[in-house]
Design goal:
Keywords (chains A, B): FAD, Flavoprotein, Oxidoreductase
InterPro entries (chains A, B): FAD-bd_oxidored_4_C (IPR004113), FAD-bd_PCMH (IPR016166), FAD-linked_OxidoTrans_Type4 (IPR051914), Oxid_FAD_bind_N (IPR006094)
Low-confidence stretches of chain A: none
GO molecular function, one term (chains A, B): oxidoreductase activity
Helix content of chain A: 25-40%
CATH topology of the largest domain in chain A: Vanillyl-alcohol Oxidase, Chain A, domain 3
Organism (chains A, B): Leucobacter soli
Mean pLDDT of chain A: 96
Shape of chain A: globular
Oligomer: homodimer
Radius of gyration of chain A: 22 Å
Family (chains A, B): Belongs to the FAD-binding oxidoreductase/transferase type 4 family.
Number of strands of chain A: 18
Largest interface: A-B, 85 and 85 residues
Chain lengths: ~475, ~475
């Protein structure tokens, strides 16, 4: 391929002029204009400087951009709302950022209980559109108000309700994808069951923009769920909280099972002042939305919390339950107020949650670094938030070491370096340690088969092609 | 590759001797011994004669067999319990059949609510093992008593409960796979959420043995569901039944929504004599397993059935509900008593169910062929059963024409040629008509990347390699 670094100034100018002609009102190319598109929320310090940012509105425009990139061998970094936490949308030098932020259409079809969405639509916008028809799109990242469906699909995003209702891939029935060579394909559709050919829909969900650019999705909607009952339990030790969570997860299906440690509780209480118990070491928020008027699952969870020594159990009203769920969602921005974050997304088999928490406490101590711990505990997916002062290089070094050690710890416990945020560019160094060289090589074969030039999101998930 | 047809007798004898040395007590090679392994339940008339049947017990033995096949360029047809309905396990001339029927281990881990299973385990055996721990493996093909988990994974099998609980892929968390070159890889594990690397688990589920041989799976279990309430509704016309089903599927989440037409009702009643109403044109069995003591979803369904003109609505006891579910499961063998079957598995968006049924009635008339119609109606997945007398070649011709026309009809309605049985070898001629040449070509690239010699299940899903 004729990679970006092989490009002379004249080549770049010529390619850019061609792109500007293709999308006259939808290309940003000055340094000031491209700056906000160099990084996603992971704030990768090694972000490149792109040649341009393309802002297509239609599938045809995406196709034109990708075909142009393929002709010139120019890297394409697909970007949703830029809220990614793994550097999956970090720009690369001389490439383009293909932002789908203008692609925001949504059509709900109540008859098939599906919606057809463009990838730039925000998760909250899809939820609102579904709600107008009494329907519900379950996957709910904590960032649902600011993250896009395209980004959700790229990372196979989860969220709070996933413990009962599953993740993004469980709701994507169909996709339109622009391939690396500029062809557009359509996969699946409003069919609940379809096994004709390889399961390519499932392959693209979670492929982080490395195999194609999603330009449209058909997603499954559910009837709106009943109002959940929620309970909060406060523990004097993380071990006890983790043991209670493991017992619950093994026996019942809560609709919510979330966790915050003392650091997160403190930060959220500073932000929201809603009466969280700052004396507790751990806060667990549990919910059930089944239709049992006796609330047996709630009663069972209360009994488990009590038996594991909860110091306080709060059976909430609907409003208080919603407030506490909001508090849990606010944890990342709340902790972010204390410093720069390195945001982990490690998962473990649920019975090993206690060991993970204990190990992270050790890492925090060893590295003299603050690590807040929040989790979608009911599916073993956790977000240790490594906090550091960006003005202190030594602190940053220690934080980066801790960030890596957390991933290695999760892998040593039979876990994963990413439960729902993706590998992106930031976690790639730890990927082989989890999945092994053979599995990485098999993934690379698929990548090479679909993107032989390696122009799609180079450096994310897979090593960038040699130039 | 050195394909089977390029093999001389000496080569074959030499290769076979080598295989016998590798698995001394686990190779069948006489004509009589291999005969039962030439076809699955689809009874493909073009089945080949394999060189041998291998019956490994362990992953290492599978690996040895596949490595042997790779060295000799000999096709490998993986086989579970042989209950496939699309010819996915049809033997090929000079290849081997790799039957996993002796690989039957299962270990349930209640702490992670998962089971680790070998692929030859029957679905019913997994269900029984889970039940010993108060757990449940939801995917329940009608053939659950005789079909294997390996086959379920190969086809991403569905079943009756899938309308609420999803299909096989929704329950497979981890896989061990022997690749075409004889390497063994492990993917995923007892983690509910894991997005590290490409979603290869999801790619292998439903790949019909064309990308690798599954030797172990980690599947997710649920707590046992509550006892469902079930209602049966009998209609004087299929249009009305279909309209009622569409309305229900758009608004609520039943745990069961099944359909049988008059031909199926008659055949099942002949077999079971349980008081099915032979005067009805359509029978709908619906269920709800939520915990609402008022049974509001059941009441809503009754109201919908009534409004759409049901001639009889039967609110069942638990025992009668189970009997009627069993009746629905017995439909395929019951209709099979009337002749040879060509078993379709077409799906449509649910609002088009009525058009599909009407179209199939026209095809039956045009082709002067009996077509019974049963369906997992709540997810639009239907099984038109084309019945013919195998002793009458003209009838067989008409039946085969009807079989193809049903698939073309489904595709014309925005549907699929297979909802849960797979494409296998029998439906391959219709695959491109549904997914298109570009999607087929993308699938082929992935196939070629993982199985460059084309030795894994040649002719299933993809055209066999040119020899």
């Amino acid at each position: 391929m004729r990679g970006a670094e092989g490009y002379g100034t004249a080549d770049r100018a010529e390619a850019l002029a061609e792109l500007l002609a293709l999308l006259p009102d939808a290309v940003l190319a000055t340094a000031d204009e491209v700056e906000p598109y160099r990084r996603d929320r992971a704030l990768d310090p090694h972000a490149g400087v792109p040649l341009a940012v393309a802002l297509p509105r239609t599938t045809e425009e995406v196709q034109a951009v990708v075909a142009w990139a393929a002709r010139h061998g120019i890297p394409v970094v697909p970007r949703g709302a830029g809220t990614g936490l793994s550097g999956g949308a970090t720009a690369v030098d001389g490439g383009i950022v293909l932002s789908v932020e203008r692609m925001r259409d949504v059509r709900v079809d109540p008859a098939t209980r599906t919606a057809i969405v463009q990838p730039g639509l925000l998760n909250a916008e899809l939820q609102a559109a579904a709600a107008q028809h009494g329907l519900w799109y379950p996957p709910d990242p904590a960032s649902f108000e600011i993250c896009s469906i395209g980004g959700n699909i790229a990372t196979n995003a989860g969220g709070l309700c996933c413990v009962k209702y599953g993740v993004t891939v469980d709701y994507v029935l169909g996709l339109e994808v622009v391939l690396a060579d500029g062809r557009t394909i359509r996969l699946g559709g409003p069919l609940v069951k379809d096994v004709a050919g390889l399961p390519l829909v499932k392959l693209f969900v979670g492929s982080e923009g490395t195999l194609g650019v999603v330009t449209e999705a058909t997603v499954r909607l559910l009837p709106a769920p009943p109002t959940p009952r929620r309970i909060a339990a406060w523990f004097g030790s993380s071990e006890r909280a983790a043991a209670a969570i493991s017992e619950i997860a093994a026996a019942i299906r809560p609709s919510l099972l979330e966790y915050m440690d003392r650091t997160a509780i403190d930060a959220v209480e500073d932000l929201l002042a809603i009466g969280l118990d700052r004396s507790a070491e751990a806060f667990v928020l549990a919910g059930s939305d089944d239709l049992d008027p006796e609330g047996r699952d709630i009663a069972r969870m209360v009994e488990v919390f009590r038996r594991h020594g909860a110091i306080l159990i709060e059976e909430t009203t609907t409003a208080r339950g919603a407030e506490l769920a909001h508090a849990r969602r606010a944890a990342i921005p709340a902790v972010e107020a204390r410093g720069r974050l390195l945001l982990s997304d490690v998962g473990v088999p649920i019975p090993r949650l206690g060991e993970l928490i204990a190990g992270i406490e050790r890492i925090a101590e060893d590295r003299d670094t603050c690590i807040a711990f929040i989790a979608h505990a009911g599916d073993g997916n956790t977000h240790p938030l490594v906090v550091f002062d960006p003005a202190d290089p030594a602190a940053q070094d220690r934080a980066e070491t801790a960030y890596g050690e957390i991933m290695s710890l999760a892998v040593s416990l039979g876990g994963t370096i990413s439960g729902e945020h993706g590998v992106g560019k930031l976690k790639r160094p730890w990927l082989e340690g989890q999945i092994g060289s053979d599995v990485l090589e098999i993934g690379q074969r698929i990548k090479d088969a679909l993107d032989p030039q390696g122009i799609l999101n180079p450096g994310a998930v897979f090593a960038p092609p040699a130039r």
